[in-house]
């Protein structure tokens, strides 16, 4: 490393970056957009949770997970189960053979609520489960893989397999999970109608606050001794191991953190969009999530947020303008980004924009780019 | 940001051919009532702020044109565009030309919900023609109910639904099943059935209705099996069928699995033209045969409400106009025809109500008759489904069905059949 890492939580430029993002998320977007578009951006921001988790796992820790959709989905499903139970009151479901159970169970000839749905009547249990279920699951995967020193491409392939297995399980067990349709028609949260415009706006801000909590956690981890160990592990795993550190534990930890972030994103997604379906769990969405991270720049926590916003905004805009050709446009965007800017948006900022700003401000070089120098040097 | 392209109805392929041939032809068929827009001031016909101007009205088209469902849904998009074009050629709706905003559901249910919301909230479309799979309909349903939109849904489906914000132009399960089973027992003397399906709600509910009806007739179901969507190994179930020797294989296999199923059936030596066992399906339209291959399914029977080969005048004109607009190689399946009814039923409802307001359309819709439908006469039931005939077709080598049976009367839609839930 060329510069000594700062012990403060933020360097000056990082602090400015956080403030700019906060202004965009909490002021500019809500003021500039109508509720419908704001809700869409709220949805995009839920993917940013996953992308930030991936920056820690992949960018810092070198663990490429192609199965983050699993954790996004588990978090989302836990929330959806709670909301679905609340929506399935005996009055609302009086036309069913068995009133009081979710409609898809009735269609699949279930006559009683499965035992493992019961706890989801409780909101506090649900909040606990949103984090705990994915974290326990990622812990099991992590222990099974990292203890055996499975890493790199093999780990990526196994996470893909897990994503595929979970999708098949959800679709196959449609009586318990809603199958391909997913869990739809979610209405209220403790009696509060989440479908109204005002609810959407409130949820957007709750989502934004949660995202910043995750961003600060991620920043803290990056700046801690643990963060530096992660980067050391990514670059020279054996040396870290020979220095006496238990590499597997650190990997399991950061993988669980990534899963927890993804799960919070999934739960916020369910709240804002009003349903959850297996199409967020499988291989394709999991890879898309890695793309958000790559476009933003896999080394930059804030870049991940911009990446998720840009890609999803482009997806919506292209598909509205060119319903039959939009996939090609999106593909071209990815190729262009990877060819021209291998470090993503964050790389563009570091290489192209930051030096100009520095020139404009006529400051001495070392103060501003310290953090970025650390990142690029670490590669 | 919402810079969606607005399409005028008449921007399709072969515009001139359609206007010259199709419009002249349809004009003679659908006797146009010339309604002038100035007789219906915008303020009076549109009290809820929909996208209606003095000379245009905007509707939405919401289907998958990318992804795995594109192959099925493209026909519906084409049919809806044809209907809109023809309506415009006759002077539009209440003197207003229909414009449409097309959105792509991308074979992804959440995307359907997002786009439905965009169409209703940002574009304020007066109605939406769209969706195909039950999953996509379930995803958009809360959106239509919350923002009070009107969806014209074309696919035959499992029933168990009756939304005030949907007009179901396809048949619900009982309309497709009961008459077909009666036919096969009466004319073919079938006594035993083997039920097979893809594993999701439509085949499962349909087979449940079929089983109930078969058992009510005092006949036997000798087997019932389900395979995941996309499954391609049917050899074990085919062997089971050979052992159980049912009179009828009742198949509700969906999508790409069909190709494998019918090829393996043929390879296993089951010659469907001999009708021992006889194969009856409710999931293979002319569109699917394109993928399966006529030689692989020749001799099977399908139970639908529409076949391209219907010889009534409405259908001859429809098929001709469809081919003029979209090319000679095109085939038209049951759902495509149902999608074509959507814009026409909406137009009829608007004109009956004298208003574009969704609440008034909902009120006006039951009882609306369409004498010009390619499938023949249809009528909207109180429960928002259509009265329509059930027909049985016999698959031929060229990929078309020969109609061998149709019910004498229209069959009443019954989305919540007693005891079938």
UniProtKB/TrEMBL annotation, chain A:
It is a multi-pass membrane protein. The chain crosses the membrane at residues 15-33, 45-67, 123-146, 153-172, 202-221, 242-269, 289-313, 325-342. GO terms for molecular function: branched-chain amino acid transmembrane transporter activity. It is found in: Cell membrane. One of its GO terms (cellular component) is plasma membrane. Coiled coil: none annotated. Pfam families: BPD_transp_2. It comes from the Bacteria. Keywords: Cell membrane, Membrane, Transmembrane, Transmembrane helix. This is Leucine/isoleucine/valine transporter permease subunit. It comes from Actibacterium lipolyticum.
TrEMBL record, chain B:
InterPro entries: ABC_urea-bd_UrtA, Peripla_BP_I, TAT_signal. CDD domains: PBP1_FmdD-like. This is Aliphatic amidase expression-regulating protein. It comes from Actibacterium lipolyticum. The lineage of its organism: Bacteria, Pseudomonadati, Pseudomonadota, Alphaproteobacteria, Rhodobacterales.
């Amino acid at each position: 490393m060329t510069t000594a890492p700062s012990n403060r939580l933020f360097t000056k430029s990082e602090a400015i970056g956080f403030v700019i993002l906060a202004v965009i998320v909490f002021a500019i977007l809500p003021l500039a957009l109508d509720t419908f578009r704001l809700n869409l951006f709220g949805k995009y921001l839920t993917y940013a949770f996953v992308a930030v988790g991936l920056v820690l796992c992949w960018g810092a820790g070198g663990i490429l997970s192609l199965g983050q959709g699993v954790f996004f989905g588990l978090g989302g499903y836990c929330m959806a189960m709670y909301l679905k139970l609340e929506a399935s009151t005996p009055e609302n479901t009086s036309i069913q053979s068995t009133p009081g159970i979710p409609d898809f169970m009735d269609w699949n000839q279930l006559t009683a609520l499965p035992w493992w749905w019961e706890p989801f009547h409780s909101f506090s249990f649900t909040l606990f489960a949103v984090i705990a279920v994915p974290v326990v699951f990622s812990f099991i995967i992590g222990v099974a893989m990292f203890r055996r020193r499975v890493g790199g491409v093999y780990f990526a392939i196994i996470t893909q397999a897990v994503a595929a297995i979970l999708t098949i399980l959800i679709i196959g067990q449609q009586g318990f999970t809603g199958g391909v349709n997913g869990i739809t028609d979610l209405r209220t949260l403790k009696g509060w109608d989440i479908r109204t415009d005002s609810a959407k706006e409130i949820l957007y801000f709750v989502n934004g606050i949660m995202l910043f909590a995750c961003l600060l956690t991620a920043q803290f981890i990056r700046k801690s001794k643990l963060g530096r160990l992660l980067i050391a592990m990514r670059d020279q795993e054996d040396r870290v191991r020979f220095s006496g550190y238990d590499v597997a534990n650190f990997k399991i930890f950061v993988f669980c953190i990534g899963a927890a972030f993804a799960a919070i994103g999934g739960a916020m997604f369910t709240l804002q969009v009003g349903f959850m379906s297996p199409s967020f769990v499988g291989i394709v969405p999991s890879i898309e999530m890695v793309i958000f991270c790559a476009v933003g720049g896999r080394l930059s926590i804030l870049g991940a947020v911009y990446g998720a916003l840009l890609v999803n905004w482009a997806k919506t805009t292209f598909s509205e303008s060119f319903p039959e050709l939009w996939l090609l446009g999106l593909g071209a965007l990815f190729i262009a980004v990877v060819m021209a800017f291998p470090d993503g948006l964050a790389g563009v900022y570091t290489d192209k924009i930051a030096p100009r700003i520095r020139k404009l401000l006529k400051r001495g070089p070392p103060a501003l780019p310290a953090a970025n120098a650390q990142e690029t040097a670490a590669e | 940001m919402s810079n969606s392209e607005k399409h005028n109805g008449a921007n399709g392929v072969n515009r001139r051919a359609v206007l010259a041939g199709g419009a002249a032809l349809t004009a003679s068929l659908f006797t146009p009532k010339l309604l002038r827009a100035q007789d219906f001031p915008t303020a009076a016909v549109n009290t809820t702020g929909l996208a209606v101007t003095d000379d245009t009205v905007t509707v939405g088209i919401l289907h998958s044109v990318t992804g795995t469902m594109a192959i099925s849904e493209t026909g519906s998009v084409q049919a809806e565009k044809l209907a809109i074009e023809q309506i415009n050629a006759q002077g539009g709706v209440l003197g207003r030309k229909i414009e449409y905003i097309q959105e792509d559901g991308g074979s992804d249910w959440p995307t359907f919900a997002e786009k439905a919301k965009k169409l209703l909230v940002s574009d304020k479309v007066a109605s939406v023609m769209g969706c195909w799979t039950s999953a996509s309909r379930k995803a958009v349903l809360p959106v239509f109910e919350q923002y009070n939109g009107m969806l014209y849904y074309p696919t035959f489906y499992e029933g168990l639904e009756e939304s005030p914000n949907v007009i179901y132009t396809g048949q619900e399960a009982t309309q497709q099943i009961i008459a077909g089973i009666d036919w096969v027992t009466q004319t073919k003397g079938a006594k035993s059935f083997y039920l097979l399906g893809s594993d999701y709600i439509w085949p499962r509910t349909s087979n449940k209705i079929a089983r109930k009806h078969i058992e009510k007739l005092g006949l036997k179901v000798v087997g019932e099996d389900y395979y995941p969507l996309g499954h391609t190994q049917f050899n074990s179930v085919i062997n089971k069928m050979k052992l159980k020797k049912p009179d009828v294989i009742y198949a509700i296999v969906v999508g790409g699995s069909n190709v494998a199923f019918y090829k393996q059936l043929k390879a296993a030596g089951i010659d469907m033209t001999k009708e021992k066992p006889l194969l009856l399906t409710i999931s293979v339209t002319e569109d699917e045969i394109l993928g399966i291959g006529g030689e692989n399914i020749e001799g099977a029977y399908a139970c639908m409400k529409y076949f391209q080969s219907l010889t009534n005048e409405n259908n001859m004109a429809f098929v001709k106009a469809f081919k003029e607009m979209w090319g000679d190689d095109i085939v038209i399946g049951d759902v495509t025809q149902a999608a074509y009814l959507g814009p026409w039923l909406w137009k009829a409802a608007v004109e009956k109500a004298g208003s574009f307001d969704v609440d008034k359309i909902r009120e006006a819709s039951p009882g609306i008759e369409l004498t010009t439908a390619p499938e023949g006469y249809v009528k909207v039931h109180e429960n928002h489904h259509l009265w329509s005939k059930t027909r049985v077709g016999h698959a031929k080598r060229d990929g078309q069905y020969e109609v061998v049976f149709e019910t004498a009367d229209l069959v009443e839609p019954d989305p919540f059949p007693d005891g079938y839930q």
